[in-house]
Amino acid sequence: MSSNVVFLLVTTLLAMAAQCNANFPYYFGDFKVSIRNGFSGNIKLEVNCTSFDDDLGRHWLRKGETYSFSFHTDILGTTTWDCRLATQDAPLGTSQLFKCDYDFLKKCDFRECKWDVRDDTEYLLDIPQNKYVRWAHT
């Protein structure tokens, strides 16, 4: 009975990581996320990023300032970073600014995700294309 439980547990863990394991080694390694305050006015941007087991605390960015952090993805390739964004006047919501997804990581050139938070939404730098793209969160 216990060997069946172990088998089911291992199978479940592998299935959870399958989306990223198919893209090995792209999902696994060191990454950097940068978030820039790109608002047009004199608006401060609050950034509070969290992963499954880390909370980086609140950071206030003036216009043009950037907050960056680096990390190493977990062995299962399930690392995500959700960042709560707000201005001094209103919350903007929570955005997933890093995820284990081949198309997403390709835009980040498999090493650094550069975000620019603007008046209308967040933009991700598509490094291979060298242009910011409006990001539609899924």
Automatic annotation (TrEMBL):
Subcellular location as annotated: Secreted
Keyword Secreted: yes
Pfam families referenced in this protein's UniProt entry, alphabetically: Self-incomp_S1
Keywords: Secreted, Self-incompatibility, Signal
GO cellular component: extracellular region
Gene Ontology BP terms: rejection of self pollen
Signal peptide extent: 1-22
Major localization class: secreted
Family indicated by similarity: Belongs to the plant self-incompatibility (S1) protein family.
Protein name, as recorded: S-protein homolog
Organism encoding this protein: Prunus avium (Cherry)
Gene name per UniProt: LOC110750111
